[in-house]
Structures are given as C-alpha cells and as structure tokens.
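Service request form, structural biology core

Requester: graduate student, group of Dr. S.
Request type: structure prediction, single chain
Budget code: on file
Notes: please return the result as structure tokens.

Sequence provided:
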Amino acid sequence: MNELEQLQTALGWRFADAHLLRLALTHPSVAHEHAAKLQHNQRLEFLGDSVLELVLTSELYRRFPALGEGALTKARARLVNRRSLADRAQRLDLGRYLVLSRGEELHGGRERSSTLADAFEALLGAIFLDQGFEAARAFVIEQFATELGESPGLSDFENPKGELQERLQARSAHPPQYRVENATGPDHDRMFECGVYHEGVELGRGRDKSKKAAEAQAALDALRRLDQSAQTAAKA
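Core staff response, request fulfilled:
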C-alpha cells in the first residue's frame, strides 16, 4: 500500500482523483527548489479556507441561537486559528505525508505549525473539489465535533459581563444588575456570592474571592442558562 493509499485509509475518505490529494500535500518549497512552475497546495489552501469558514459559520449560527454576532465571531476565530488547524493536521498525521523540498525537510517543515495548518486547509479544498460541498461539510463537522457539540468558549470570554449586557440590550433597554448575596470567611480570605438580575429575574449566580470575579462568574452562569434555554426552544 503506497502512502496516499495509507492516508486515504486513515482519513476514511477515498478520492476519485488522487492527484488532488497529492497536490494538497505538496508544499510551495518544492516549486521554489526546482525554480519551476510546479503545482503546489496554495490554491487549494485558499479554497479550503473559504469552505472552512462557511461551514463553521453556518454550524455555529444554527447550533447556538443565543449567541450574538460578537460571540459567534470569537468562537469561529478560536476554531480557525493556525494553532487549532495545525493540531488537527497533527491528529491526522499529515506531516508524515507532506511533499517538501530538501531544505524545508531539513528545517523541520513536517512539524511546522503554519505548514500543517496550510495542509489541513488544502486537504479540505481537495475534498471539496473531489466530492462536493456536502462531503467537505461532513469532514469539517467530524473534525470539529467536540467543539461544535458544546457551548463555544463561554469559559474563555475575556469579558463575560460585557457579553451578557450585549445580549440583553438586543431585547431590552435595561442593563443587568449585580447583587452580593452572601459573603463568608475572614477578612483576609473572603468568599463572595453574587447574583445577576434582569428586570427583576435572577439569571445566574457566581462565587469567587472578589466581588468583581464573583460577578463575572454570575455572568458566565447566566450566559450558559441563556444558551440552554435557546437550544431547548429551538428543538421544541
């Protein structure tokens, strides 16, 4: 079994045109090394990048109806950053199959994050050309199944209070209100419990060692509850 056959078996995808798979794995350094107009994977990378953005944008929009534009943009950015794509390429062992120039090989091209990320996008572009959009979509959903199956990045929000206010302002002029519900422990080691309310209704609670951090935890709790409610309503 040759290397392309091995990769197709590992991927679970069979190409009608194996040349597209070979092209997706061919680094631009090969053309530079031979000073010739050899084909390489940059055009497929360009195509795969667009397909990836479309699929993930559509899936995030459909799966998380409570997320606003800002949160959806942040979630998508985390999924398509170079490190994220390189990690997926490593899981697929794409580095092993790359076609590199001698110089790129000697300088660790098979492990370079940018090269692996480009190869992942080029592979997606090749799948799209070979088998169509639905096949490419299925590949993306399979590769990002874990992230698409859970609320994207709520714990990573840099400003959960700002995100919560942005969502609430989309439907009401009233901002959320935060209250300290309880404070326990000695002065040097206090634990605060805060609630966040909107129009008299409690949306979430959080506990932490400072009022500010407890409010942020309450906002995160509220965001999770809003997502759960929206998903339940969407399934009804």
